[in-house]
Each structure stands twice: as C-alpha cells, then as structure tokens.
Design a protein that fits this description.
- Helix 1 runs parallel beside helix 5.
- The termini are far apart.
- The radius of gyration is 14 Å and the shape is globular.
- Helix content is 33%, strand content 25%.
- The strands form 3 sheets. It has a 5-stranded mixed beta sheet.
- By secondary structure, it is of the alpha/beta class.
Length: 153
Amino acid sequence: MPVKVGDTAPDFTLPAQNGSSVSLSDFRGKKAVVLYFYPKDDTPGCTAESCAFRDRYEVFQTAGAEIIGVSGDSNESHQRFATKYNLPFTLLSDKGDQVRKLYGATAAFGLFPGRVTYVIDQQGVVQYVFDSMFNFQGHVEEALKTLQQLTVN
C-alpha cells in the first residue's frame, strides 16, 4: 500500500553518503522533510532533479525543511554524485530498495525505480506526494509550494 497524504510517514534508518546513519525520526518536531526517491546517481534525469533541489536548497531551509534524496546506489556512489554536483543535502543508500518498497515508491513502468517526492511535516505526517518520472522541476516546485502553504497555515 503506497504512503499517501495524511499518513504518518514510516520511520527508517539508512546510511548517508558521509557514512553516518540518518533516521527520519531525527527530524520529528524539528524540521519538515522533503524526501525524494530517485532511480540512479549521475543519470540525466536524476542529475537534473538533484541540481534543481540544490539550486533551491536555501529556500527550502528558510521554509523550515531538510531535503533528503534516496536511491539504491552505494554510499560511495552518492559521495561521488554529491561532490560532482555540489549537493548540500543528504543522500541515503537504500540497498535492496527496502525503504522505497515501504513507501510504495516502486518501479516506474515496471522496469526501473520510480521518482516520487514526499513532503513530511514536523509532526511526521505526509502533506504531499508528487509522482512523476519526467517532470524533474515539478518535484522541486510542488514540494516548495506545499511547504510554503504549511508555514502560512
């Protein structure tokens, strides 16, 4: 069953590109989280999406959110990807796609991992889900719009 708006986001702990472990619960009560699942490091679409998040990172921070990217790539791959494109946020390694499956952000077209973004508020509730394989910029714009609405309310 995919995670949807109004659900409590399932907690998880995964290794980050810097070798530390990151849990979603680390942010509860402190920050909103923009959790985006993407297929693969250093591919054209994933690079475009990640760089779009990078380019708006300060705006997300000002809106009270942390950005976290998740794919099945290794920590080493994430480290190279983050360094190459100067990504200021955390990338998590989901070997075996366990967290991806937990969220229901599974295969696009039944062939490769999907591209899904979740906006999770400070209380851990999913406020928005954006699922689009090809609208890379949309993931960033929709997440930011959702966060800005949360801070107004």
